Amino acid sequence: MRVRSWSCIVAGVVLVLGCAAPLGAQALFDFAQGKPATGAKPAVKGAPPPAKGAQPAAKGTRWVVPRTPDGTPDLQGNWTNETQTPLERMGAQGGTLTDQQAAAIEDRAKVVEEFRDRPSDPDRPAPPKGGEAGRLAAPGQQSFIEIISEAAGGAVGGYNGFWLDPGLNVIRIDGVARSSIIIDPPNGRLPARTDAGKKRLAEINARAKTFGEFDHPEMRPLADRCLVSFGSNAGPPMLPNYFYNNNYTIVQTKDHVMILSEMNHDARIIRIGATTHGPASVRPWFGDSIGRWEGDTLVVETTNIHPLQLNQTSILWAYRGASENLKVTERFTRTGPETILYRFTMEDPATFTAPFTGELPFTRLDEMVYEYACHEGNYAMTNILSGERAKERRETEQKKQ
To answer: Of 278, 307, 279, which Cα lies nearest the Cα of 290?
Structure first.
């Protein structure tokens, strides 16, 4: 749980496509622009199989999948998917990390956390006008999460780093560290766009330039408006945002599964046993989800996703301007007392040249999940727009002089 006031960091996250490159993150810039990966080493051909076996609850004791009164696996409780592992593979490494590579990433995350948690100096002077680039960064080579954070806050910073809680560990499946959430295609990157997908993306970008980004509330990102998270937390697919609050509560009945995402206190309702989706004209936030049990795996199929979600092109989203025909299939499998293996496949032939699949663990969270009261503290929207109007008035007066 993080109680916070909105600041420029949220707007910056959505604009990270334009901010990351000056910071030296060429890989971030390339895949944000939709360029295919080069030099990436394939993992094993195709997607790895689901996690094998069950984790033992204790030495000498075989863990048994807990079940609800109706006999289905019990997915209920609080869970988190926070991680240091990016959605798409960075650089040219393979699909898995060595122990040394994983340890280096996790050690860096601990260094950054300790650096950000240092007490502030109450006697420090005021920062220079416009901020000071790099002043808020921990010494050493920045991770991709640090690059996103710095791009979001810019030279002036966002807010105290104490509030940032992206997670300290990389993804491990069957004990093996992964280099990306995407597992298929084998290069760990989203497939290339079709011609229609490229055209749609260009149209989205062109529409965004029709007005100034501070002209109207509806020109601000969805998160600034407190509509949804600044990333795909609620999904589908449900992905970490690499900042904080990557937490979920699952409630389960015979006929429904509800997944509450802390960001932005959004609830998905999955109709168990339904076989048809709602009419195409009805496109709610997070789409229309229907579910079924295949053995001990909950399979959820979602269509009819809200168009404002599909139009998201930030690296924190997997849609990248997907079409209205997008279908997302998710699979939830209990693999141990502390873990749900979450796998998703996105199919949109009108946008991507092939389907793509990712997976990551949801880990048991032994903490409360509190309401994320965004609207109640959303002073930034007023400040953003009034600040721009003040700037316009100042520029008008200067022209008169």
So the answer is: 278
